[in-house]
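input
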Amino acid sequence: MKVKKYTGPTMPQVMNEIRKELGPEAVILNSKEIQHGGIFGFLKKKRIEVVAALDPDPLPINQDKRNNAINQSVPSTDIDTTAVVLQEVKHLKKMVALQSQGEKENYQPDYQIAYQYLLDQEVDHRYAEDIINAVVKKQESNGIEPDMKQILRTIKEEINTRLSGLAFEGITKDNKIVHFVGPTGVGKTTTLAKIAANSMLKHHKRVAFITADTYRIAAIEQLKTYAQILDVPMEVVYTNEDYQDAIQQFAEYDLILVDTAGRNFRDAQYVAELEKGLGTGQEHATYLVLSLTAKPKDLTEIYQQFYHVPIKGLIFTKVDETRQYGSMINIVLDNQIGISYLTNGQDVPDDLSHASPGIISDLIVGGYDHE
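output
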């Protein structure tokens, strides 16, 4: 008998994996909820663990019963067909809703639905129009009839093209002192911890922490907790002199991560003071941390406030807390700056990934099927 343990975020996903590998004859021996991930017992996630078995030589059963069981099961082709039909019904509903609005349409129905979808994703109308115009031109020149699946595929290609010239670059080996700036509440401290753990576990770097976020006691305590878990040194600095002393103290470390004060981004004096305290040069890097749950206009205003700060790249947090991802396109194309990292949860260091044009376009286009 073949026995194997499977784990996954949900029972249906685990069962699908079991069916794919062991087939419909597999038997469930045990299932339970377990804790997974995190660091030294902290920030764990719940997962489902299932023990399944398959007997390669099962007891013989009546062939008629077997045939009846097979006939009663739903073929995979029927399941696939049902999914296609449901998607077509959703599409027809969107077309009917579009026509019932009575508003002027700039494109044929399928293209108009795609255009509206981009707007619903909070893509600025300038970029939505530019992308759909390019899609229409490309498909018409190739003699392609409007088809939603093909339209979405071409939209993804157009997004990739527009983002491909930007630097989607994370921390490099030349960067030794890395600052994280941004408004309060976006998750700078947790992001810093994720990058620290990733640098230690994957790149075997010696890491040290500096925090200048002395306005919030909770922020200091949070970083202290991470420092203890990761077993890295940490210094709290109150002045620029303290900061310079801490940099000298950690001179032998491979990577110094600096958590800056999270305050009202509309406070021009705060941003000016922050700019003075940030170093320049190849060994320095500064990342602007933004939350995808913020309003597009707020994100634009935040970036404008930090415009004079030497930002190397953007980090978007809380990807898992929204279904609108168009803001990333707006701020990236408006300012010609790349995205370095994305975070999609609290798990350290797992919920951190490097960004790329392909990932961004997948997030934006991939949401269409879930509407």
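quick obs: DSSP finds 13 helices and eleven strands in the chain.
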